[in-house]
Amino acid sequence: MKNKELSISLINMMKLSIEEDLKNKISSIKNFSIYSGVLGNILFLNLYNEYFKIRSEVNEEVINFLFNIQNLSIFQKKGAFPHWFWLANKFSYSKVSQFGFNERVILRTRLLEASLFYFKQKKFDLFKGGIGLLISALSLKNDFSKEEIEYLTLITNAIKNTSEIDKFGGLKWKTQNATEKNRFYNLGLAHGITSIIAVCLKIFQIDNINSQIKNNCSYIIQNAFKFLEAQKLDEEEYFSKYPDFAFVDKQKRYSSRLAWCYGDLSIGYTLLRAGKILHNDKITNSALDTLRKTVLRRNYKQNNILDPGFCHGISGVAYIYKKIYMLTNESIYEEANSCWINDLFECLNIGVNSFFLDIKKITKNREFYNNYKLDNSFLMGYSGIGIVLLSHLTDILSDWDDIVLLS
Predict the structure, then answer these.
(1) First-residue to last-residue Cα distance in the chain
(2) Which of 65, 116, 141, 228 sits most deeply, having the most CB atoms within 10 A of its CB?
(3) Percent of the chain with pLDDT over 70
């Protein structure tokens, strides 16, 4: 494979950085999040070990500490229990955590209950709301009990009933931090309407759910799509299909970035999945129209790409193109993935500052990049970038990207 040696060299560099950091703070960890803290580091190291078949003593030491039942209260106090539960299920830490199947089912039920509470409060956010809790609950892939099916029914009812209906019959949900003075609807995957579509797709594919849940999910997805369609921008005036936000005041219209968190790429990818799962040609064709236009967007300043990270940087864009190619087998997405992976190599080789201070790519003032430094986190740093590079080497890593709503 082209650039395989370079990928491995960069991955090993990131592994050393992460392990050194973990060694220094194993007994004084403050951030346990997958997205910005230590559990994101563990996710990377697990996938590294899976690909290279190499044990990491540091990783095992940290796992034995973090997944010991006596330390569970730390996660509960820090609000990171859902991430702990997700990682424990993905990598079978039941022996370390001393949680048997029955105990994990009880914990899953409690997460569904908490998720329902957030959805009723109209708090949907992946990071701070019901969607994040629900994704963690669904990581335990065993048949759902009658009580859990009832919770899923109530959750999908809550998502449907807390929506607003626009004049076209589309469904929309006001953004958590929107005020009555400044009402807007976030369209993105990280915080907005696309995340609701993604989590409903996840529920829709559960084996033993009832027809009411499936009907709720299908209704939500198809009518959320209607709302997104109504937000499309004038192609002659804007360079993206969708804005980041839909404001009540229609005068506020902006092109969106190209990223995992916002914009055409993640919206188009999620709609493509929806079209295929629901066998809805209208959604599929709209998604493909959006996605085919994204491959032409290589202008860093326009795309508002600021860094190599997963959230709103080069590696997240590269990874989503790989996912699209796997769904479509269309060569344009394979080529797009290669282009962005090559940019990622260049950025990491010459340094973030030098790469983004290139006149063709500069998006902020020089002071920003003079002080910029990659950390070891998943969303913004080495853990997420490293996982993308591992995924560049193989298609058979453990299923992990539901934690970012991509499966």
Answers:
(1) 26
(2) 228
(3) 89
**Which amino acid is located at 171 in the chain?**
L
Nearest to 126 by CA among 63, 193, 69: 193
- The sign of the dihedral angle between the CA atoms of 85, 91, 96, 102 is positive
Query: Token digits for 296?
Result: 């032409």
Residue pair 128/196 in contact (Cβ under 8 Å)? The answer is no
Q: What's the CA angle centered on 401, arms 373 and 35, to 5 degrees?
A: 40
Residue type, 51: Y
How would you classify residue 129: left for phi > 0, otherwise alpha for psi between -120 and 50, otherwise beta?
beta
By CB atoms closer than 10 A (0-12, 13-18, 19+), residue 237 is: exposed
Backbone phi and psi for residue 252, each to the nearest 5 degrees, phi listed first? -85, 100
CA angle 190, 81, 52 (to 5 degrees): 75
Nearest to 356 by CA among 298, 300, 315: 300
SS3 3: coil
Q: Are 269 and 311 in contact (CB under 8 A)?
A: no
Among 211, 222, 99, 102, CA closest to 149: 211
User: For residue range 48-107, what is the model confidence (pLDDT) as tens digits?
Assistant: 999 999 888 888 888 877 776 566 666 666 678 899 899 988 887 644 455 677 888 888
